[in-house]
Amino acid sequence: MKARNKLARTLSLCAFFVPAGYLFFLIRRYGVDVPFLEQWNVALLFEKLSQGTLTAADLFAQQNEYRQFFPHVLLVGIGRLTNWNVKYDLYLIFLCACLISVGIYRLGVLTLGGTCEARAAYLLTNLLLECVPVEADCGPRHA
Q1: Under DSSP, is residue 132 helix (H, G, I), strand (E, B) or coil?
Q2: What are the pLDDT digits (tens) for 108-130?
Q3: Is the separation of the CB atoms in 116 and 130 below 8 Å?
Q4: Is the CB of residue 53 less than 8 Å from the CB of residue 23?
């Protein structure tokens, strides 16, 4: 019975890594170095950075209905290191999703314990985390 329980635990652990592994494969295989939608707004920051005129006000500038200072700082920093290779932005987003997944797992262990139902809920949560569309925060589109 112990061996069967250990096998079930190992298989469920492997199932947790399948969505993340699949996303990593997709980024590696199909990720391209082309800015998409709102990433073009970051191009203006790189232009100002190259001219030496980038200010904190530029990083705090309003974009749509919000200000995104920390993402701008992060993207400009990574862009400076990678010559603005957008594929590295994809890897950073992937890393953040993995950290969110670990946080959800820890929260589940603290609240639900290590039951089979808790592992199933964690797996479903990871699938939801993977399935959130990229266009979700891009606002309305006009035809």
Answers
A1: coil
A2: 778 877 677 777 777 777 777 76
A3: no
A4: no
CA distance 91 to 117: 31
Three-state DSSP at 62 gives strand
Q: Residues of the chain whose pLDDT is less than 70?
A: 1, 12-13, 15-16, 114, 130-143
Instruction: Please state whether the predicted TM-score (pTM) of the whole model is above 0.85.
Output: no
DSSP 7-48: HHHHHHHHHHHHHHHHHHHHHHHH--S---GGGHHHHHHHHH
Instruction: Please tell me the number of Cα atoms within 13 Å of 136 on its side-chain side.
Output: 6
pLDDT in tens, 84-97: 888 888 888 888 88
